[in-house]
Structures are given as structure tokens and as C-alpha cells.
Amino acid sequence: MTMMTTHTDLQQLSDAARTLLAEEEALLDATRAAIRRAAEARIAAPPSASATRAAAEALSSLRALEALFGAVVLACGGCATVDVAGRLGPGDPALASLRDERGQPVDLGAIARAHDATVLFFWATRCPCVARYQERMLALRGAHPSERVAMFAVVSNADDDLARAATVARSRGFTLPLVHDPGGRLARRLDARTTPTTVILDRDGATRFVGWIDNERPPGTRGRVAWAEEALGALLEGRSPPTARAPVYGCMITRSLVEPRACHGPQ
What we know:
Structural class: alpha/beta
CATH architecture of the largest domain: 3-Layer(aba) Sandwich
Oligomer: single chain
Number of strands: 8
Radius of gyration: 20 Å
Order of helices and strands: HHHHHEHHEHEHEEEHEE
């Protein structure tokens, strides 16, 4: 009985933490939108002294909110990661704001349940690694039937709106469907920190692979380790992926307009 009570308490704490995180993220999104509107207004007309002060105050507020949000994440780390497998379940706040190119909601949980595997490539317009890996993403798409494997490019960067991303994708001949992840909520939930990190989900929405497509070796070259391909192949054969987490490189996913962009090596 004591163990059951403890489990119930933990579940209630987890639910409360998720609700608080969702509320904080919504507040951050509203603040970012206000700052963006203020920036557009400054472009349209020379800023007055009062407008400049207001923008500075808004920026300060955003930084304070993000510091608070970071503290909430740290404080709730235990309850937010009760499901160590990274399973995306119904009602998960990370899924609530996903949109397709037409602005329609994307039910990633339902999509995962309808396929043997769902592959997510975290994608950005300005990352050179994304452009370099485009053909490998498309090759992975072409190697597996859409009836069994769903694939999406997820746009999580704060400075990448979906209209711009769609325009850039079309200009490059990139044909995977785009999904907008406002505020980088899904990226944060799946621990995707760079583009083009690959995440593979199973039919239950559990994370089975997070990492780079390969070890920076072009297909067909000696020494190439195709982490994502091997993980996906194993999953489709009913086996556990040989590598659940591979190194990641590339461009840091920016979740804030005031967060500096950075590129780095493996984590």
C-alpha cells in the first residue's frame, strides 16, 4: 500500500510539473511574439525614447522568464523524466503546438501509433550540416515504405518560421514534410540539441534512437557507421537498435531569440 501511494504521489507531481512547464512555455511564446512585433515596429518607424525603453524592458523580462523556466526544468527534472524511455503519450505538452505547413495541428502520437517507426530529422534553414545531409535524409526516406515508416523534418529554431522554412526547402528540392515546433518544445522533450539530429520513435511513441545519421562519412566510403539506418532497420525487424544514442554534431537548436547560435562537435 505504501508503494502504491508513493507511485500515485509521483504521478501527481509529474502531472503538475508538466502543467507548469506548459504554462511557462506559453508565457515565453507570448513574450517572444511581443518582442518580435516591437522589432517590426522599430523597422517601420524610427523608435522613440519610450519605445526603446519598452523594448529593453521586454528583453529583460524575457531573459528573466527564461531563467525562471530553466529553474523550473531543473527543479522538476526528476518528475519530468519519470519515463526514462522518452515516451510521447497522449496529452504530452510537447505535442500540443506542432503544426504542418498549412498551419494544421500534427498529431504525432497518432502518427507514431499508425507506423512501425517514425523518423524525425531536426531541420534548420541556416545550418550548413542540414544542407550537407539532405540527400542522406531523402535516401533514408526512399529506402523504406511510407506505410511502415513516417518521416518528418522538424523546424524548432526560434528564428525559423514555417513559411521561410518551406520556401527554403522547396528551393533545395527537399521533399520531406515539415513540422513546426514552436519554442522547441518537442526538441527539448526528445533531447535534440542540434540540427540535423535524428530521432526514431517506435509504435508506442518511445524514443529508440537519438543521434547523428552517421559518423560524417559519405555513403559508400570506408569506415562509415550508419547509426540511424542501422537503428531503423533493427526496429523494423523487431530487434532493439544496436545503438540507442549516437554522437551529435552540427548547429545548436536556438529556442530563444536572445540565445546565441553556436555550432559544435560531438556531445
